Amino acid sequence: MMTEYRNGKFRPYRPKQKRKTAAFIRSICNFRCLSTGFFVIAFLLILTAWLMPVSDADTGPAKKLYLDCNSYHLEEDQLIEAESARISAAVESYTAKQEAAALASFAEAPPAAETIVPETPVPEPSVPETSVPTAYDDIDLLCNMVEAEAGNQDLMGKRLVACVALNRVDNPNWPDTITGVITQPGQFASYADGGMQRFSVISDATREAVRLELQQRSYPALYYFTADGYSAYGTPYFQYGDHYFSTR
Questions:
Q1: Would 134 be classed as within a structural domain?
Q2: Nearest to 198 by CA among 152, 243, 160, 144
Q3: How many structural domains is the chain composed of?
């Protein structure tokens, strides 16, 4: 390899033309580096001068824009609060006027005349009186018999027993009074064996059953039996409770 002494040293040999070209390229590169560095430094200085305030009295555009935005939001909040306060004051004023007008109209209106409604006595509910024929001479005796014969039955069972006694009073084949029907020999076991005397306290249900049968009969029965079945007397009609009822 050919060498030459250049710049105090032996270096690879290069023609002069190539050395000039290399020196030119190196100078251009050095210039570009310097120019690029210069432009970068200049750009940074300009940017710094634009963003940073020069003094306390002067602010950069970015900070000025930030302050303007804040002031805008503050002004908007103040406007909203002021509008809300104005609306609240208007509502309170309207309400106060309405109350004052109502009080004034109430004070000016003449007192209403008091209407006195006369008290009407309420009649006590009463059971319509049933005209009791003279044949029904002893209602208490009938109640005593029903209590002794059907004291353990419900209201309808008591009514049916009372109905048999009253049907006999109305029938020409039996005595024409309650006393005569009940005291007839061999007809009502409670009278014959003294059972009626043991039932001297009459229940309200028994009295109600007798009262209803005096108003209207339930069935046309003339006999009833308690010996677990019908007897040879009469025509079997129906069974209710502990009793078997028969007609003529």
A1: no
A2: 144
A3: 3
Q: Is residue 115 part of a domain?
A: no
CA distance 176 to 180: 7
For residue 4, which amino acid is it? Answer: E
Domain with 228 in it: 139-247
SS3 5: strand
Report the C-alpha gap between 133 and 236 in whole angstroms.
29
pLDDT above 80 (res 135): no
State the pTM of this model: 0.46
Asked if residues 172 and 231 have their Cβ atoms less than 8 Å apart, the reply is: no
Can you state the angle between helices 204-215 and 155-170, rounded to 10 degrees?
Answer: 40
- Could you give the CA distance from residue 159 to residue 166 in angstroms, rounded to a whole number? 10
- Whole-angstrom Cα distance, residue 94 to residue 102? 12
Are 65 and 7 in a shared domain? no
**Helix pair angle (155-170, 139-150), 10° resolution:** 130
- Cβ neighbour number for residue 23 with a 10 Å cutoff: 10
Q: What is the pLDDT of residues 178-210, one digit of tens each?
A: 999 999 888 888 888 887 888 778 899 999 999
Are 14 and 34 in the same domain? Answer: yes
Kindly state the percentage of the chain with pLDDT values over 70. Answer: 63
> Helix and strand tally (H, E) in the chain?
8, 5
**Who has greater pLDDT, 64 or 101?**
101
